[in-house]
Amino acid sequence: MLTTHIEHIGIAVKNLNESIKYYEEIFNLKCYAIEEVKDQKVRTAFFQIGETKIELLESTEPDGPVGKFIEKKGEGVHHIAFAVNNLNGTLKEIEAKGIQLIDKQPRNGAEGLEIVFLHPRSTYGVLTELCEKK
Ligand code: ZN
């Protein structure tokens, strides 16, 4: 696997607009995109910091993955996403090493990325996303 950088850090929030304001006013960052990912029942907002982004996640439905996460653990860091080359090959490689995958196949994430999630059981408790630009 060739991991090139941390693509983004996903943060679960209850209120997207309020948390956007926090990052804009306190950190002087600019939200450059808001996007709904229907698949995952979330609205996302993005900030660029160097090569890395902050991805704020607000659940659009209580039973979505982010809604359930907040109910169980509260707001906070939800996942870390690593940018990799050759996502398909990488998937086979790490599955062969016994890492438990949530997605067996890459699927569409926000920002035109192909993504897969690895199960936190296999990753020392961190919900881990791998992604590649299509
Ligand atoms: Zn993500």
Strand percentage, roughly?
35-45%
Name given to the CATH homologous superfamily:
2,3-Dihydroxybiphenyl 1,2-Dioxygenase, domain 1
- The count of domains is 1
CATH architecture: Roll
First-to-last CA distance: 17 Å
The string of secondary-structure elements, in order, is EHEEEHEHEEE
Strand order, largest beta sheet: 2-3-4-1-5-8-7-6
Calculate the mean pLDDT score and round it.
95
Bound molecules: zinc ion
Gyration radius (Cα, Å) is 15 Å
| Biggest beta-sheet profile | 8 strands, mixed
* Helical segment count: 3
Please identify the structural class as seen in this structure: alpha+beta
Helix content: 10-25%
Descriptive notes:
It is a single chain. The protein is an alpha+beta fold. The chain has one domain: 2,3-Dihydroxybiphenyl 1,2-Dioxygenase, domain 1 (Roll). Helix content is 23%, strand content 43%. The chain is built from 3 helices and 8 strands; from the N terminus they run E-H-E-E-E-H-E-H-E-E-E. The protein has helices at 16-27, 65-73, 87-96, and strands at 2-13, 33-37, 42-49, 52-59, 76-85, 107-108, 113-118, 128-133. Strands 2-3-4-1-5-8-7-6 form an 8-stranded mixed beta sheet. Strand 3 (42-49) and strand 4 form a beta hairpin. The mean pLDDT is 95. It binds zinc ion (ZN). Residues 8, 10, 55, 79, 81, 129 line the site of zinc ion.
